[in-house]
Structure prediction request, 345 residues.
Amino acid sequence: MRALVARTLGAPLAIETVPVPAPGAGEILIEVIACGICHSDLHAVDGDWGTPPLMPLIPGHEVAGRVVGVGAGVADVALGELVGVPWMFWSCGTCEWCLAGMETICPSTESTGFSKAGGYAEYMVAPAAFVARLPESVDPVAIAPVLCAGVTTYRGLKRAGLRPGQWLAVLGVGGLGHLAVQYAVAMGLRVVALDVDHEKLALATSLGAEEVVNSADTDPVVAVRDLLGGTHGSIVTAAAPIAFEQAVGVLRPGGTAVYIGLPGHARDTISTSISRLVESEITVRGSNVGTRLDLQEAVDFAVRGQVAATVRVVGLADVNDVFADMCAGRIVGRVVLAHDHGVST
Ligand SMILES: [Zn+2]
Ligand SMILES: [Zn+2]
Prediction:
């Protein structure tokens, strides 16, 4: 099969012909139809995080595909089914966090396209118990971004603990942020979107954001407080550390900021006012991808048509260019890698 492989951290990905993997016990073999290209894939191949990835690495963790093989003991997923594979490849199921329904912070978790081979390949294997079941009605290309960008923003919004009618600030309207706007609107929240790019803000408006603020033109903290008196919640999908500080600044007293973006290891700290956190009873929460339940719920919003990623489709040979566009902030919505199984095996 053809795959995009990283053999050296920081080097461009190369198209290689590698063996089709065999599913082990409890695993399924998936013919990958589409795989979203997430900023985390670039962090992984650049070695931006403290832990190095499996090398050589096949990245990709927004996978939609069809089951073409099943390993021993797989009973709940059938041949021919459409499935999705998220970032959380596997968790142990027995630690205190797994038992508490917080499998996203299981210390033994495996990550798709990081510690396990991912979807930048024509085939991959995954544990049957951790894939999303997708109805035949979905377009694999359209659903792919929901498998990471969608579920991650959806869980972040759940962890913000907001009620319908309350204001949410979405900081960064990229692959994650443009879905955050849609999930928030579907959940009855009112949205102010913040970004430095007019085109991305226009997309946010078209997706239901009632207010937008261009953080390149004005201080967004002052602007949001002037416009709304602050927001009840905020969610940071941007990678710039200043956005994480602004997410606290835009809150009204009692508000909650949720961090889901990842700036990378080299710029991983922020500064914030302790007295503001104390006196205004501000909450700051991290949120890490999503559980299997979050994933199924996030997919269901998309299946019902309440959330739809803005998608551009590319082939294996284009992914290095997509990474360059990503670094330059030139991507509106999500880019999805689609495999052409008809011409290559
Ligand atoms: Zn991702
Ligand atoms: Zn666990």
Notes: The mean pLDDT is 95. Residues 150-286 form a domain with the Rossmann fold fold (CATH 3.40.50.720). Residues 113 and 259 are 22 Å apart (CA to CA).
